[in-house]
Backbone:
């Protein structure tokens, strides 16, 4: 197995959208106590184009896409750390997990964030998703906020 990481092209977007659907199904399986918070009345937006502030990297094995990471750059003018790289979505096919593919994708995205002048990165993950939390901690990220909710 030879995994290569590269920037996505518009030609990759249909397959990335399929991965996004698989990611949504996987996330729904994690929701136990938080289902009411996460459920949607319609599908979330799918990547349809690539804007200047959006960055997508894909992982390939023998010319087949096996995963992707999607991030966005946001400015925070009222903060000292004013240019944020946000890791929005990460997905790797089950047969390619636990082989460092996710880490390679994230590191490529972080490098691009740095090249574009970002001074920090963040991500959000479901509190039930302990695997994702461990992955992000393994690359040096740490929790900084706790989001609480209540249905009323």
Residues:
């Amino acid at each position: 197995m030879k995994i290569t990481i590269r920037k996505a092209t518009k030609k990759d977007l249909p397959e990335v959208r399929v991965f996004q659907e698989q990611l949504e199904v996987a996330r729904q399986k994690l929701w136990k106590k938080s289902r009411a918070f996460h459920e949607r009345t319609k599908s979330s937006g799918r990547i349809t184009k690539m804007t200047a502030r959006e960055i997508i990297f894909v992982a390939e094995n023998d010319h087949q896409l096996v995963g992707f990471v999607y991030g966005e750059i946001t400015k925070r003018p009222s903060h000292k750390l004013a240019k944020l790289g946000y890791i929005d979505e990460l997905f790797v096919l089950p047969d390619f997990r636990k082989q460092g593919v996710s880490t390679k994708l994230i590191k490529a995205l972080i490098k691009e964030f740095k090249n574009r002048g970002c001074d920090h990165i963040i991500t959000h993950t479901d509190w039930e998703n302990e695997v994702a939390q461990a992955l992000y901690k393994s690359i040096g990220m740490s929790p900084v906020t706790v989001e609480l909710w209540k249905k009323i």
